[in-house]
Amino acid sequence: MKLLVFAGTTEGRELAEAAARLGWDVTASVATEYGAGFFAPAGHLQVREGRLDEGQMEKLLAEGNFALVVDATHPYAVEVSRNLRAAAKAAGAPYLRLLRPESEAPGCLFFDTLPEAARAAGARPGNILAATGANQIAAYAGIPDFAARVYARVLPTEESRARCLAAGLPEEHIIAAMGPFGVEQNVRDLKTHEIASLVTKDGGAAGGFPEKLEAAGRCGAAVFVVRRPRDEGLSYDEVLEIIRRKRA
After folding, report:
1. Rounded alpha-carbon distances, angstroms, from residue 122 to 141, 192, 194, 235
2. Where in the chain are the domains?
3. Per-residue pLDDT at 58
């Protein structure tokens, strides 16, 4: 039986590997070469790399004859999930959405969009750590003294670096590192750059969100959180159980 996992997250990778051990022929789809590097393709597991639009997804599903499609993309990857749902429906492929549990975040300030969170953080004195990825770094560009106050923690790829530089962020304000980060690493980053405000998304436990909150509390940094988009799905354990039953 063939399984397609859109595996842009830690739990996506873990699910793909677990399904392969159960005997599924698994294709793990990732957007970048960097993401593909976390897999060790072997036996029942193969990795396909590259971003797909809805039409390309539909073509992949139609040609692959998959018994099941699992969307294990990031909770904030709204467009990817929307396209994959539509492609699965068009191809007649059974679809499951794997969702990370949302986090408890007492004391945080919540916003519906990143620009709103960035503006609110910018209105507060002091430096800002943008821990929301490189793709939307331009959302911070309107902050007064942007180039002097904002530090971006992004993936250590040339694409991420280029996006930050294009937005006007100086090289020395780019923290290129691969998360999730532990409490002590978060504390070091906050203290090293004298961060007063942290802007982040609720990446859940898998994304190191609790460790960010603890570090911010230790350092006295305010936390501005972009709310998760509304979505429906199943937990990792629920999806794995469905996969196990279908294989039995």
Report:
1. 10, 19, 15, 35
2. 2-100+230-247, 109-226
3. 93
User: So what CATH class is 109-226?
Assistant: alpha beta
Cross-strand bridge partners of residue 29: 6, 48
- What are 96's strand-pairing partners? 70
Question: In angstroms, rounded to a whole number, what is the distance separating the alpha carbons of residues 126 and 150?
Answer: 9
CATH architecture of 2-100+230-247: 3-Layer(aba) Sandwich (3.40)
**Can you read off the two tokens belonging to residue 112?**
């519906």
Same fold, 2-100+230-247 and 109-226: yes
Q: Please give the model's pTM, rounded to 2 decimal places.
A: 0.86
Bridge partner list, 195: 127
pLDDT of residue 37: 83
The answer to whether the peptide bond before residue 180 is cis (omega within 30 degrees of 0) is: yes
Query: Looking up tokens 């990792």, which residue turns up?
Result: 236
Q: Give pLDDT < 50 ranges for the chain.
A: none
Crossing angle of helices 236-247 and 10-21, in 10° steps, is 20
Cα torsion 86, 88, 92, 98: sign:
negative
